Amino acid sequence: MTFATELEESVKATFRTQWTTRDGQVVPDDKSVTLGNDGIYLDAAVLYADLADSTDMVNSMGAVYAAEVYKTFLTCAARIINREGGTITAYDGDRIMAVFIGDSKNSDAARTALRINWAVSEIIRPAWAAQYTSSLYSLRHVVGVDISRLLVAKTGVRGANDLVWVGRAANYAAKMCALDDVHSSYITSAAYNQLNDASKFHTVEGVKNNMWTLQRETIKGEPVYASNYLWRDTG
After folding, report:
1. What does the DSSP 8-state code read for residue 118?
2. How far apart are CA 146 and CA 193, in angstroms?
3. Which of 193, 139, 155 is nearest to 33 (CA)?
4. Domain extents for the chain?
5. Are strands 38-51 and 141-157 parallel, antiparallel or unpaired?
6. CA-to-CA distance for 70 and 157, rounded, in angstroms?
7. Which residues lie across from 153 on neighbouring strands?
8. Within 13 A of 234's CA, how many CA atoms are on the CB side?
9. Contact indicator for 89, 99 with CB cutoff of 8 Å
10. Is pTM, for the whole model, over 0.90?
11. Rounded to an integer, what distance in angstroms lies between the CA atom of residue 166 and that of residue 215?
């Protein structure tokens, strides 16, 4: 059998094989599904956090400098995600993806976005500015959050495979990371409409101030809300 024939047979087998699916109650790992047409459905909020203009940073500042920025951003984001009950599902260069499940998944993911903004603004930027006093690079980031039903499947080959998260939330959350970095946090209206008050309003002296504002931008027609609020960690 030639290599081309092997590929053809593999593709045909995928298209003609019946899928085995089930609903999941926990975030799957790579042992939960097989490489065949096997999948788990999950109702989830997806969060993507991404550095802005990182390509320009690498080109102008070099790989070692960029690696330090990547490491500090991803480390802070990952620790906040874990603290807020999310599950990290992927790292991709300067980007991190996480999934939240449960009754408060929208609010947990939105709060995580605001906490990442706090870490970037009040921890990473000051430390970076103190270390690199002559740098002209402006450290910015964007976080996107959406919710939907996802199908989790495994792709690749034996020894080199990973989970894929198929559904609107994974796509929309990633697309929001490409929106204008004048705002650090974006959520779809679907996610916004199910936020609890704590993740929607900042209350000062009994007055509720909405932390999110409706934007002109949409994602495939879906209204988008944005925020620059910093959710400080006082613990």
Report:
1. H
2. 11
3. 155
4. 19-227
5. antiparallel
6. 29
7. 39, 164
8. 2
9. yes
10. yes
11. 26
The mean per-residue pLDDT over the stretch 64-82 comes to 93
Please answer whether residues 15 and 49 qualify as being in contact, where contact means their C-beta atoms are separated by less than 8 angstroms: no
Measured distance CA(81)–CA(83) in Å, rounded: 5
- Give the Cα separation of 51 and 116 in Å (integer): 11
Rg (CA), the chain: 20
In angstroms, the Cα distances linking 33 to 21, 134, 160, 173, 219 are 10, 50, 14, 24, 31
**Tokens for 14?**
């995928």
Q: Tens digits of per-residue pLDDT, 75-122? A: 999 999 999 999 999 999 899 999 999 999 999 999 999 999 999 999
* Alpha carbons 211 and 227: distance in angstroms, whole number: 6
* C-alpha–C-alpha distance, residues 56 and 28, integer Å: 35
Q: Give how far Cα 47 sits from Cα of 64, 77, 127, Å.
A: 27, 11, 25
What percent of the chain is helix, strand and coil (3-state, nearest 5)? 35, 35, 30
- Evaluated on CA atoms 50, 234, 89, 39, the torsion sign reads negative
| List of residues 6+ apart from 136 with CB closer than 8 A | none
Per CATH, is 19-227 categorized as 3.30.70.1230? Answer: yes
Give the position of tokens 């019946």.
Answer: 18
Dist CA 69 CA 132 (whole Å): 11
